């Protein structure tokens, strides 16, 4: 079952609370807004992993790149999840099928680890969080996974 905490996802990861953090990306390799922009600045390894993928490639939807982060004695993996194709224009940019595929793959690769994520696909991508949460619950059933809601005072 999805746990929920309020705080700073990246700070909590740096405190050793999670083994894997997942954030949504578009397929254009820019990481220019939202938590992706913060990750790009704070963890250039994650941005470098994104840069190794082909920009504007529709086939990236449902896949991810990853970076292994080591800061002091703390280790975790950042997942750049390709859950939306583009960011421009109006309407919902979140691709629900891509979100499902990403989380199904995460289940296979990171079984037994502590996974955390923000409101993936429901912020700048304007997806329906209730629908996204149901997908994550189905795909990560029985696993240790946590939604980290941003503290509005942060």
Report the average pLDDT across residues.
Answer: 94
Name the assembly state: single chain
Please estimate the helix content.
25-40%
Query: How large a portion of the residues is in β-strands, by DSSP E?
Result: 15-25%
Number of helices: 5
Given helix and strand content, the structural type is: alpha/beta
Jot down its keywords.
154 residues, six-stranded mixed β-sheet, alpha/beta, single chain, 5 helices
Written account of the structure:
The structure is a single chain. The protein is an alpha/beta fold and 154 residues long. Helices cover 31% and strands 24% of the residues. A six-stranded mixed β-sheet has the order 1-6-5-2-4-3, with helices on both faces. α2 (34-42) crosses α3 (44-51) and α4 (96-109) runs parallel beside α5 (129-139).
Please give the structural blueprint.
Elements: E1 3-7, H1 9-14, E2 20-25, H2 34-42, H3 44-51, E3 64-71, E4 74-82, H4 96-109, E5 115-117, H5 129-139, E6 145-150
Parallel strand pairs: 1-6, 2-4, 2-5, 5-6
Antiparallel strand pairs: 3-4
State the gist of this model.
This protein has 154 residues and is of the alpha/beta class. The protein has helices at residues 9-14, 34-42, 44-51, 96-109, 129-139; strands at residues 3-7, 20-25, 64-71, 74-82, 115-117, 145-150. A six-stranded mixed sheet has the order 1-6-5-2-4-3, sandwiched between helices.
